[in-house]
Write a structure and sequence with these properties.
Helix content: over 70%
Shape: elongated
Order of helices and strands: HHHHHHHHHHH
CATH class: Mainly Alpha
Number of strands: 0
CATH topology: MetI-like fold
Length: 256
C-alpha cells in the first residue's frame, strides 16, 4: 500500500509533469512515435491489403506477412536495427536516439493487423452486392470506391484500432535503447530504485492506452454504415438488415 501511496504522490507532484524529462514531455514524445509509426504502417500496408482483397488474390501473401510479423519479437528486431550500421542508434530529429530504428520496428509491428483486416474486410463484402454493382454498369474502380470500401471500413477500422493500442504500448521499448517516450520514466525510476516513478510511468501508459482504445472504438462505430443506419431507424432490424448493402449500391450508382 505504501508503494501505491508514493505513486499517487508522484503523480500529484507538479514537478513530475514539467521539464524536459517530465511526464508531459515524455508523453508527447511517445504520442509522436505512435502516430508516426501508425501513419507509416497504414500508408504501406492498407493500399496493398485493400488492393489484394479487391482482386481476390494474394490471401496466402497477406496471411504469411501477418504471421511472420507476429512471430518476430519487436525488442529483438529493435536490438538488431540499433546494432546495424543502418539505421543504427544515432539521433533522428524529434524522435531522439535510435529514433529511426524504433520507428522501423514499430511500423513492422503495426503491419500484421492492418494487412490482415484490410484483406479480410474486402473479401467479406457480399458477392451479390458486387454483382449488383457490376450489373448497374459500375467500373471496377467505381465499385471499389463507392461500394466495397464503405462496407469494408468497419473491419479496416478494427485493424487500425488494434494496431494503435499495440503500437502505443510497445513504444515504451524505445527506452531500452535510450530512446524517447514514457518508457524512460519507467526505466529510470526502477534503475534508481524509485519504484514510485516507475509505477507512475506505467500508470500513465495504461491510462492513455484506455483513452486511445475508447476513441478508436468510437471512430470504428462512426464509419460503420450498418450501425449508423440502425441508429437512425426506430424500426427493429432483423433478417431484413441484409438488404442494406443493395440500397448502398443503388445510391452509389445514382451518385455516379
Amino acid at each position: 500500500m505504501e508503494l501505491f501511496a508514493e505513486t499517487w504522490q508522484y503523480l500529484l507532484d507538479a514537478d513530475s509533469w514539467t521539464g524536459g524529462g517530465g511526464l508531459v514531455a515524455r508523453l508527447l514524445e511517445q504520442l509522436l512515435l505512435t502516430a508516426t509509426a501508425l501513419a507509416a504502417a497504414m500508408l504501406l500496408g492498407l493500399p496493398l491489403a485493400l488492393w489484394l482483397g479487391h482482386l481476390g488474390r494474394g490471401g496466402f501473401l497477406a496471411v504469411n506477412i501477418s504471421n511472420v510479423g507476429r512471430a518476430i519479437p519487436t525488442f529483438a528486431l529493435l536490438a538488431l536495427l540499433v546494432a546495424a550500421d543502418w539505421p543504427g542508434s544515432g539521433d533522428f530529429g524529434p524522435y531522439g536516439r535510435a529514433g529511426l530504428a524504433t520507428l522501423i520496428a514499430l511500423v513492422l509491428f503495426a503491419l500484421p493487423p492492418l494487412i490482415t483486416n484490410g484483406y479480410v474486410a474486402m473479401r467479406e463484402v457480399p458477392t451479390e452486392v458486387k454483382e449488383a454493382a457490376d450489373g448497374m454498369g459500375m467500373s471496377r474502380r467505381q465499385r471499389f470506391r463507392r461500394v466495397e470500401l464503405p462496407l469494408a471500413l468497419p473491419v479496416v477500422a478494427s485493424g487500425v484500432r488494434l494496431a494503435l493500442v499495440q503500437v502505443w504500448a510497445t513504444a515504451t521499448i524505445a527506452a531500452l535503447v535510450a530512446g524517447p517516450g514514457l518508457g524512460r520514466i519507467i526505466t529510470e525510476g526502477f534503475a534508481r530504485n524509485d519504484y514510485a516513478q516507475g509505477m507512475a510511468g506505467a500508470v500513465v501508459v495504461a491510462l492513455v492506452a484506455l483513452v486511445l482504445e475508447v476513441a478508436a472504438a468510437a471512430l470504428q462505430r462512426a464509419v460503420d454504415p450498418m450501425a449508423n443506419a440502425a441508429s437512425h431507424s426506430s424500426s427493429p432490424r432483423g433478417v431484413g438488415e441484409m438488404s442494406e448493402p443493395s440500397t448502398t449500391v443503388e445510391e452509389a450508382s445514382t451518385g455516379s
